[in-house]
């Protein structure tokens, strides 16, 4: 777990994004649309996402990172500004690397970045009320449960939940003092 780092996304990380797109758990929790494009179009799409994320990082709207185990990208993490002094975290790790503590460690690194580098004072992490794995990551990374937001998200793509309003758990971590 000590080998986990957050680093800039590279164009050659596009296959990682493609793998996450095909992961049933990512599709479920991130409400991804089904992949209907061929592999070449999918790679082009993934590369366009990397370009968009580079721009968001340059514009200080959101900071996107590859989660790396050594030199290998195994996931992505992001911290988005959502208000004065407040940021929202998200992350995804490829299925082959689930349940190894990597998401927790990446979240801890993202917290440090947000509090120390960006000077944020409050970080939020939202999970679907059924996403127990992400709830445990939040807790292990030092977040505390603040509230349940009823009907906080409406799914648009994930077939079992299309047009369903879903409840979300809000976890927070606030800078001391």
> Order of strands in the sheet with the most strands?
1-2-3-4-5-7-6
Report the total helices. Answer: 5
Write down the CATH topology. Answer: Aminopeptidase
* CATH architecture annotation name: 3-Layer(aba) Sandwich
Radius of gyration of CA atoms, rounded to a whole number: 16 Å
Tell me the fraction of residues in β-strands, as a range: 25-35%
Q: What sequence of helices (H) and strands (E) makes up the elements?
A: EHHHEEEHEHEE
Rounded mean pLDDT is 87
Shape descriptor: globular
Q: Please provide the count of β strands.
A: 7
Structural class: alpha+beta
Whole-number tally of structural domains:
1
Distance between the termini: 30 Å
Helix content: 25-40%
Q: Spans with pLDDT under 50 lasting ≥5 residues?
A: none
**CATH class (first level) name:** Alpha Beta
Largest sheet: 7 strands, mixed
CATH superfamily grouping: Gcn5-related N-acetyltransferase (GNAT)
What report would you give on this structure?
By secondary structure, the protein is an alpha+beta fold. It has one domain: Aminopeptidase, CATH 3.40.630. 34% of the residues lie in helices and 34% in strands. It is built from five helices and seven strands. It has a seven-stranded mixed β-sheet with strand order 1-2-3-4-5-7-6, with helices on both faces. A hairpin with a 2-residue loop joins strand 2 (62-69) and strand 3. Helix 1 crosses helix 3. The longest helix is centred in the first third of the chain and has 20 residues, at 39-58. The model has no long low-confidence stretch (mean pLDDT 87).
């Amino acid at each position: 777990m000590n080998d986990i780092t957050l680093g800039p996304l590279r164009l050659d990380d596009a296959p990682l994004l493609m793998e996450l797109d095909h992961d049933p758990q990512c599709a479920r929790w991130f409400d991804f649309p089904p992949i209907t494009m061929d592999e070449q179009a999918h790679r082009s799409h993934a590369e366009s996402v990397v370009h968009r994320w580079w721009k968001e990082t340059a514009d200080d709207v959101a900071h996107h990172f590859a989660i790396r185990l050594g030199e290998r990208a195994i996931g992505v993490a992001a911290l988005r500004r959502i208000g004065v002094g407040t940021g929202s975290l998200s992350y995804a790790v490829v299925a082959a690397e689930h349940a190894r503590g990597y998401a927790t460690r990446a979240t801890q690194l993202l917290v440090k970045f947000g509090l120390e580098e960006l000077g944020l004072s409050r970080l939020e992490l939202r999970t679907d009320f059924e996403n127990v794995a992400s709830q445990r990551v939040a807790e292990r990374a030092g977040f505390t449960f603040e509230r349940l937001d009823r009907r906080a998200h409406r799914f648009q793509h994930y077939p079992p939940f299309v047009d369903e309003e879903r409840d979300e758990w809000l976890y927070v971590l606030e800078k001391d003092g």
